[in-house]
Amino acid sequence: MGKGFFINKTVAIICGVAAIGAVATIIALFAVYTQEKSPAPWQSYRLPDSLSPVSYNVTLRPHLEPNADKLYIFNGHSSVVFTCVKETDLILIHSNELNLTLFDGFHAKLKGLNGATAPSLKKTWLEVPTQYLVVQLSSLLQAGSMYELFTEFVGELTDNLGGFYRSEYIEDGEKRVVATTQMQPTDARKAFPCFDEPAMKAVFHMTLIHPQDTVALSNAMNFEPINITIEGQKLLQTSFEPTEIMSTYLLAFVVCDFTYIGTKPGAEVLIRIWARKKALEEGQGNYALEKTGPILAFFENYYNSSYPLKKSDQIALPDFNAGAMENWGLITYRETALLYNPGVSSNGDKEWVATVISHELAHMWFGNLVTMRWWNDLWLNEGFATYVSYLGSNNAEPKWGMKDLIVLNEIIGVMAVDALAYSHPLSSNEEDILKPEHISELFDSITYSKGAAVLRMLSEFITETVFSKGLHTYLEEFKYSNTVYKDLWRHLQMAVDKAGISLPESVEVIMNRWILQMGFPLVTINTQTGTITQKHFLLDPNSVVDRPSEFMYEWIVPITWIKTGGPEQQYWLLTKEATNSNMSLGADEWLLANINMRGFYRVNYDSENWERLLAKLSSKHKDIPVINRAQIIDDAFNLARAKVVSTTLALRTTKFLNKEKEYMPWKTASRNLDYFFLMFDRSEVYGPMQAYIKKQVTPLFQYFKNITLNWTKIPENHMDQYNQVNAISLACSTGVKECVALTTGWFKDWMANPSKNNISANLKSTVYCSAIAAGGVAEWEFAWGMYKNATLASEADKLMYALSCTKEPWLLNRYLQYCLDPEKIRKQDATHTIVYIASNPIGQPLAWDFVRSNWGLLFNEYGGGSFSFGRLIDGVTKRFSTEFEYKQLLQFKQDIAGQLGSAAMSLEQVLERTRANMNWVAENQNKVLEWFTTETSSLV
Ligand SMILES: *[C@@H]1O[C@H](CO)[C@@H](O)[C@H](O)[C@H]1NC(C)=O
Ligand SMILES: *[C@@H]1O[C@H](CO)[C@@H](O)[C@H](O)[C@H]1NC(C)=O
Ligand SMILES: *[C@@H]1O[C@H](CO)[C@@H](O)[C@H](O)[C@H]1NC(C)=O
Ligand SMILES: *[C@@H]1O[C@H](CO)[C@@H](O)[C@H](O)[C@H]1NC(C)=O
Ligand SMILES: *[C@@H]1O[C@H](CO)[C@@H](O)[C@H](O)[C@H]1NC(C)=O
Ligand SMILES: [Zn+2]
């Protein structure tokens, strides 16, 4: 599935929400059967291996108007041709929430093909827990024979963003309904009965029946629609060319009144961008269209494999749960992930569009052409797409520094998650991932971001060229079929051997350490002796790891390092402890390890080397590569959290920032200081802390004022554009007067002339937030009106965030109530909005009360089974650091037992985090207060 599943990245980039998604733990499930008998086949969540689908013929008709019972429905029929592999008298096929027509009392009809005789049906029923249609036969299906099973059904076209669902929007004052799909991971079975497992690949013949003023789309190219009449209604019937052999979770079909822009006829691959007519008229699809061709060409070259399909449709939907979904040939997106409006959208919005497109296109080969056998290997699919999305977007936008930004956007964030005792290994056992909710839990930041981090590490130590050669042979061998991760290791090993690259162990042996055990090492280098040690890094030193690891939490670590500005060197740490005499230093030398954070580990040094690095940062910070300036800050703050170094050492890594102009170190510092704000913004530390940051950021604010000629120009460089946002947001929030005057002035100008918004697109989010925070009800109501009228989704998102910045409790409470009204806040945005409100210190207790008192409603109406629920709990409890709050959490856990769904693991993590926060505050409050006070004592 697309990125942004566990976090709304657009807004994270803009407003600095730490990119720590909810991490779901997959607890090994040891089946304990109390009964003597083994369960019936239909009680097992996995399909038996007796039948194998060949092709489907599916006809669906979504009704875009409610029926007499005010229900939106679709109806259809489907036949599936399958081969019997092992003789059996049982057919199990997935079917969920469908009402099946009865034929002579049975839910299906069976036919033998090519002369085979079909046994008569004995009994059929729907097995609800495992989501099967069960067909018992009176005699056996013969191995080697083919049969066809026919079903006819009615389903609800719900608004819950899963299966075949509806999305609504208003155009020209009129409500429009779109029928669309989201099958991954296990919802194709809600659209028609199917063998709904990724390895059950087949060919699909789709037909859609739809109103005359609409268009129907699916994975394959359509034939010319034909006119038909059903019960006096004139309709269109659109059939599609047969698909390639593919998995059910990659199916998509859409009926809408959208238009498209596309490549000219005759292009090798037809590329089309579909969206609301208004959006395309405003040019919002142009950027996606412009970049899709080059990104496809980049991947063709990278994989050395041509694009497997004839066409590439991409469609922006008003209601969509994930960021995007890589349906083969028809990629679906949230509007913010595909549409871009120059002058109105920010550079962050643009980067999001480029990386999400790149992520989804990467899947067209890796994931779609070659597919994991089962969901336990999801990390490979998603981690891979996440990693190469940075290569693709780097190719599309070579000046942006995307290959550096992966560190900030994916790696640093997920290290904080993976350092918890409650984390989980990337790879799971196939037997442990059975139920749909277990599969859903896998869509987390570990899967996406840590997956990307370890694959990047591997690609770096075997080189990008060799990595891509291995991919090529892997895709060749397995196209149109399924794999397990070891198949990829085998092909990469072949490429490594062929290139003559020497590794201390095989790719598989090295990588097993990183994927089969959770967490990552803290590498400690003693530059006095040259001793190097490793240890499992845990953010909370008191936490207990109760998950055993066959590798005893030791890793095979590729250590890159430089000494006093010398050339980069590489060292493999193979054991718990080793000595490399090259790493012992003379006087005046310094050592820096994990260059450009290519390795997924943290580094600690002896205190002598720390002092030398700090001295280097204050004297000539540019001697240290920019990613490592960010790394030093991030490692130090995290080591301090874990009590490996002192908190004051961490704070000292921010002292050079008064000279720093680069984005990555600033962003890293502000994310780490966010934690200090969360812990202390309700305490006496707040004043001196504000004063210190104000002191550090003022030169940066002045620098941007200068290079933008008094804020009249946009900085040229992508990362400078981001850092200008940092400068303004930190300066305004720490009360730099010039800053507040600037942002409120801009906002007032806009209020005076609502049709003319002159606020630079990149700065909007920050300016809106700071002006609404400084303002009152008038500013809020104005922004709300603008939110309701916004025609560009990313603009609406910025306003939605900014509305949470007000300091008026009654406005925040009312805004929370709006989250329960889909007419005001779309369901897809409700949990984000609640989390935004909670990130405001004044909104925090209000949001927590709100979530507690409305849990049942939120759970039932807003997809308690979905991923966003973990994020909701995570988001509203970030500040928790007192005994009182801990007890509230325990009470909450009791109160909602049985109504937790996929949020259960998040709640455990939040409890763990709250304990850790309590300890941290007790330990650090006085030291931190003293440090900030000393640093700012010279100020008046
Ligand atoms: C699919 O079903 C339709 C009728 O519903 C039929 O006309 C068509 O031939 C079938 N196609 C295949 C490939 O079986
Ligand atoms: C399916 O059947 C149930 C029970 O008869 C009914 O309540 C429901 O509305 C039906 N669903 C659809 C989409 O027709
Ligand atoms: C379908 O009907 C429309 C009018 O409703 C007509 O313009 C069109 O030519 C018809 N198409 C075919 C293929 O008959
Ligand atoms: C302002 O920018 C100009 C170049 O645009 C530069 O020459 C000058 O030194 C800068 N002044 C300050 C105070 O940064
Ligand atoms: C910026 O504004 C200040 C006064 O507000 C003025 O003195 C200065 O000349 C302006 N600089 C530029 C480059 O416009
Ligand atoms: Zn994906």
TrEMBL record:
Residues 590-915 form the ERAP1-like C-terminal domain. The record marks Y448 as: Transition state stabilizer. Residues 287-514 form the Peptidase M1 membrane alanine aminopeptidase domain. The active site is at E360 (proton acceptor). The keyword Signal does not apply. Its cofactor is Zn(2+). It is a single-pass type II membrane protein. SUPFAM superfamilies: Leukotriene A4 hydrolase N-terminal domain, Metalloproteases ('zincins'), catalytic domain. The chain crosses the membrane at residues 12-33. It is found in: Cell membrane. PANTHER family: AMINOPEPTIDASE N, PROTEASE M1 ZINC METALLOPROTEASE. This is Aminopeptidase. It comes from Parambassis ranga.
